Amino acid sequence: MVLTILCSQAFPAKDEIEITVREKKVENLSRDGLSLVFYLNVANPLDSGRWLTRYDYRLVIEQTEYLKLETTLNEPIKVEAKGSVVVALPVKITYELLLRAVPGVLGKDKLACFLAGGMTFQDERRREKRVQIAFAGEFPIFRGVDVELRPIEAKALTVGGADLVFKAVVKNPNGFDLKLESMSYKLDFGEKTVSSGTMGQGVSIAQRGEQLFSIPLLLDFFEIGRDIFSWLEQPPLPVSFSGEAAVESVWGRFKIPFSKTEKVAVSKIS
């Protein structure tokens, strides 16, 4: 875990190092876990520089200790006299460990946490002083998205080609809304890709809601193979629908991969 310098700025004179939260962000969100990042403003009002050399903290989630850590920095971070720097303190949270360590979190949409510890600074004579820190935060339990494949609609089917409509339902099992910035996809029948591209720009999927997507297909069996005609004539048809959704949410912007492979029924319609 590394503290990263982001910027520096002037600061009015006081008599000791002051540490405040500038921003809290959820990053690297996935089905496996996330990083809760505290961006801290470290202000030095003294007449000489100070070096951040190590930090320690304990993270309490829903009143249960989840993590205890002490880290010495390989390269101390200098805080100039009468100045300040912003450092990032990332806390990695793994859902597998969380479920084992903290009782009662299964089924919750978000969890409250509390980080308490200290940052140790050295002066030019290597004398040390530890400054206490204590911050509250919260983070989501992220469940990805689920995909349900619907029967393929065959408007026309001949030995030469087909006029089809592929349909899939994207479900949002999370406790927060998802707004699609874009959704890239690849659609395979058997081992043959029959469609790829992007769709869904600007579509919102409410928490625990779902959205139906349709992809029209005009297939030429002389180009893609007669085996697909056989599957359509005598279903089910082996289908793979995969891709990645770029979404915006109350927890920030992130990408969600999805993949669904199964045999799908074919419904002939006039």
Give an overview in words.
It is built from three helices and 18 strands. With 270 residues, the chain is mainly β. Strands 9, 10, 11, 15 and 18 form a five-stranded mixed β-sheet that branches. Strands 12, 13, 14, 16 and 17 form a five-stranded antiparallel β-sheet that branches. The longest helix has 8 residues, at 226-233. The chain starts with a strand and ends with a strand.
The fraction of residues in strands falls at: over 45%
Structural class: mainly beta
| Mean of all residue-level pLDDT scores | 92
| Assembly of the depicted chains | single chain
Q: How many E-type strands? A: 18
Given the structure, what is the number of helices? Answer: 3
Radius of gyration: 27 Å
Low-confidence stretches: 1-13
How far is the N terminus from the C terminus? 61 Å
Shape: elongated
Q: Could you state the order of secondary-structure elements as H and E?
A: EEEEEEHEEEEEEEEEHHEEE
SSE arrangement:
Layout: E1 4-10, E2 18-27, E3 33-44, E4 50-61, E5 64-79, E6 83-94, H1 95-101, E7 110-122, E8 128-140, E9 146-149, E10 152-157, E11 161-171, E12 178-189, E13 192-199, E14 204-205, E15 210-220, H2 221-224, H3 226-233, E16 237-249, E17 252-264, E18 266-268
Question: Which key terms come to mind for this protein?
Answer:
18 strands; 5-stranded mixed beta sheet; 270 residues; 5-stranded antiparallel beta sheet
